Amino acid sequence: MRRPVSTYRLQVRAGFDLDRVAEIADYVHALGADWLYLSPLLESEAGSDHGYDVVDHSRVDPARGGAEGLARAVAAARAHDLGVLVDTVPNHVGVATPAAMRWWWDVLEHGRSSRFAEAFDIDWEFGGGRLRLPVLGSAGDVASLRLVEADAPGPAHDDADEPRFELHYWDHRFPVASGTAVAGDDPVAVHDRQHYELIDWRRADFDLNYRRFFAVNTLAAIRVEVPWVFDESHAEIVRWLREGLADGLRVDHPDGLRDPGGYLDRLAAATGPAYVLVEKILEGDEPLPPHWEADGTSGYDALDDIDRVFVDPAGEAALDALDTELRGGTPAPAWPDLIHGTKRAIADGILRSEVLRLTRELVAPGRSPADRVRRTLQSPADSRTLRTPTHDAVTDGVRKVSERSDDSRSLRTRSTEVVADAVAEVLSCFPVYRSYLPYGREHLEHAVREARSRRPELAGTIDAVAAVLGDPEHPAAVRFQQTSGMVMAKGVEDTAFYRATRLGTLTEVGADPSEFAIDVPTLHERFARRQAEWPHSMTTLSTHDTKRGEDVRARLSVLAEVPEWWAAALGELRAIAPTGDGPFDALLWQAIVGSWPASRERLHAYAEKASREASVSTTWTAPDEAFEQRMHRAVDAAFDDPRAREIVEGLVAELSAPGWSNSLSAKLVQLAGPGVPDVYQGSELWETSLVDPDNRRPVDFGERRRLLAEIDAGALPPVDETGAAKLLATSRVLRLRRDRPELFTRYTPMAVTGPAAAHAIAFDRGGALAVATRLPVGLAARGDDPWAGTVLLRHSGPTVDVLTGRRFEGGAVPLGELLATYPVALLGPA
Question: Which residue, of 47, 369, 573, 777, has the fewest CB within 10 Å?
Answer without folding.
Answer: 47
